[in-house]
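Example complex used in Figure S2.
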Amino acid sequence: MTNIIIFLVLLVLGYVFGRMAERRHFKSIIDREKQYKHILCFNERTLPVHTPIPEVSLVAGNVVISIDYFKRIAAGLNNIFGGRVRAYESLIERARREAILRMKEDAQQHGAQAIFNVKLETASIYKGRGQQIGSVEVYAYGTALINKS
Amino acid sequence: MIITNIEIIPGKTVVKHLGMVQGNTVRAKHVGRDIMAGFKNIFGGELKGYTELLQEAREESVARMTQQAEAIGANAVINVRFSTSSITAGAAELFAYGTAVILEE
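Predicted assembly (254 residues):
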């Protein structure tokens, strides 16, 4: 009986706080995406021809985001019936956009206007047999072009 | 030392390729961070401790790669790639590799 109560409490906590955190995070992502929209990201390897020769520098950003209890249970149920696992889709989207934003922040500090050859790397972090800690890491990196002026 | 993940550095030419250089580091999370991460797993959100840990680890692997490149007389590393693999529960390997070259104006 106590187990069921603990389970339900965790489920409700996960749902309420997880949703709150997610909404807040998406709002901040959208705000910052507007703020950094002057820095352009490309995944082309070749650089366009610039007349003042720009300097280059590696810029990167990473983030680790954890799933909440409710999402884990919801995804577990999805594993039975199949189909889209929406809980994870939004989690990974958040992580990717956040990593790209942090890369842009890094580029801003270097005074860059564009980032070329952007690569995204995703890794999942698990711990223990019961997958006690489930989180996703996204690392974004690229070459920033810095115009000397 | 110029480090990039593209093949050409604008305004400079590669005069000599010196082969691949690499740097790696294996990191374990410490218990305090793990407990915090356990709480965060209920509420969701960013694991700041892990973000910092992985970032520091990547910087170290790049530093090791740079050291290796300097040791063989390169002045740039191009085409850098990163790779992550988890070895056992609780430890991760971060790996950076690239081509060491000598550049001239």
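Chain A is about 50% helix and 30% strand. Chain A touches chain B through 49 residues (CB under 8 Å).
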